[in-house]
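Z., the sequence and structure:
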Amino acid sequence: MVSARYFAGVELGGTKSIAVLARGREIIERTTVATGPPSQTLRALSDQLRAWQSGKPFAALGIASFGPLQLSRLDPDFGRMLPTPKPGWHTAAIAETLTQGLECPWLIDTDVNAAALAEYRWGAGIGQNNVCYITIGTGVGGGLVVDGRPVHGAMHPEIGHLRLRRATDDLFPGTCPFHGDCIEGLVSGPALAARMGGDPATTLDDDPRWEPIASDLAELACAILLTTSAQRILVGGGVGMARPFLLPRARAKALTRLAGYLPFFNEASAEAIIQAPALGSEAGPMGAIALAQAALVEDRQITAD
C-alpha cells in the first residue's frame, strides 16, 4: 500500500533546496540546504538521500527542480539543466547526481509541474482536470497538469517568459537577462526589488507601484485562461504568498479585461479559479513526493507490460 511505504523527494529552488522523506504522503523528515554551486548543492542532497535509503529504504524518488530542464528521455542531456539565469547551473547533471547509487524508480520534472500535481491530488485542484500552478519568487514559473499528468511537449511550459500587454504608464524595462520585460522580468523577486529600489517587503500594500504588478498578473491570468482553459490558477511562491492583496486586484482586472468572453470565468467563479495554493509552502515538497509516487506507478506499469 502507498500509505505504508516510504517515498523520497527533492525540491530544488533558486535560493534553497529541500530533501524530504515521506510515509505515504506524510512528510516525516526533511533537510534544507542553500542553493549554491550545483556540485556542492546536489552532493549534499544526494548524501541525505543515500543516508535515508540505508536506514528507511524508500520505494521511489521524485525530483522537482527549477528550470528549464531537459525532460526528453531520448535526449543525451536528459535530466540536465538547460540555459538558465542561475549562475553555474547550465548543464548541471541533476538527475544523474541525485539518483547515483539508488536502486529505485524515479521521476524528474519542473518544480511547478510537481507543485501543480500535488495540488491536483491533495490541494486546491481536487476534482479538477486542468490545474495551473504559478510560482513567483526568484523567478516566475508555471506548471500545468491535465487529466492527472504534467504537460510536456517539445519541452515543458515556460509561462514565466511570456511577454504580455503592459500597463500603459509602466516604463519599467524588466530584469530578465533573456527577454527584459517578460512576466518574470516584471514581477519576480529581483524585478520587484528593482522596481521598489530595495526590499519589496518594506513597501506598503497601498503603494501605487503595486498597481502595474497587479496588472501584469491579470494579463498572465487572462493568457492562461484563454490558452489552457485552466479550472484553477494557483499563485504561490515566496513573493506570491507574501503579498496576498495582489490576487484580488489581479482577479478584478482579469474579469474586466476578459469582458465576459469566457462563460466559466465570472464574478461568482473567479475567486475559486484564481486563488492561493491550498498546500501553501508545502506544495513544492509535496510535489516531489507526488512525482515519487507517480514513478512507482509508472514502474509497475512498465513491469506489467
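The chain has ten helices and ten strands. The chain has a mean pLDDT of 94.

Let me know what you think.
H.
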